[in-house]
Amino acid sequence: MSKTVFMExxxxxxxxxxxxxxxxxxxxxxxxxxxxxxGLAVILVGxxxxxxxxxxxxxxxxxxxxxxxxxxxxxxxxxNEDIAAVIDxxxxxxxxxxxxxxxxxxxxxxxxxxxxxxxxxKDVDGLTIPNIGKLVxxxxxxxxxxxxxxxxxxxxxxxxxxxxxxxxxxxxxxKDIDLSGKNAVVIGxxxxxxxxxxxxxxxANATVTTAHSKTQNLDEVCRSADxxxxxxxxxxxxKGNWIKPGAIVIDVGIxxxxxxxxxxxxxxxxxxxxxxxxxxVPGGVGPMTIACLMANTLKATK
Length: 302
Prior knowledge:
Number of helices: 10
Low-confidence stretches: 1-7, 161-172
Distance between the termini: 67 Å
Strand order of the largest sheet: 1-11-8-7-5-6
CATH topology of the largest domain: Rossmann fold
Structural class: alpha/beta
Shape: globular
């Protein structure tokens, strides 16, 4: 009588550092031939430690990508009018191609109105209403960086696990990602990530479900996904038994545990035994967000 042998399974780890370095290298090769390098202005208000780390990482990426970085550091006591004046000056400065207002702003400031004040053609975060409208309408605009980076990691996983699904293009754009026949579930419906992520998946021909805090039987919904994207801000919420065997799992969450260790919204140690491919936290989506910010700055320049 033959004996059934169970093989231990470990998912492919989708390394965002490797993919982001490749994107930055491609951008650098293009900026090297430009008479004037693209200029990215970053506005940092207040003393939030995490924001300072993010901005420092973005400035390092600018140096790798051949992009000129311009910093505007404002005190936490700045008013809406103070920040608006800086944005207006950068909007009219022809040497500045992209403007990034680092969020969150100190309490009491009007984030929404200040973000919408950025000229859409310089909105490298892709958060102004004209750019959001272009995304929904399927028109060419500046796409939010984290969803864009997540799509490139999905393509990375498909290119390795399913060669027949590889896109025809060699660029780092989104147009050669085809998810026809795939079910995608996005947990989270924020304007910063969940909604634009769902739009990008739709544009790639996936059948998309947006799940959120009011979704019933969330674990069952997640198990239907060939591509599962988690962005809810709850540490290790998504367990291995929520995941369809072989699915691609993109973990956008970044949470700090009481031990000081960072983790995502997915229970990585549990999920890695079930998923076909999975992003780690840290080292997955995070580096891609910054790489796509550089890509958006180059696009805004062109």
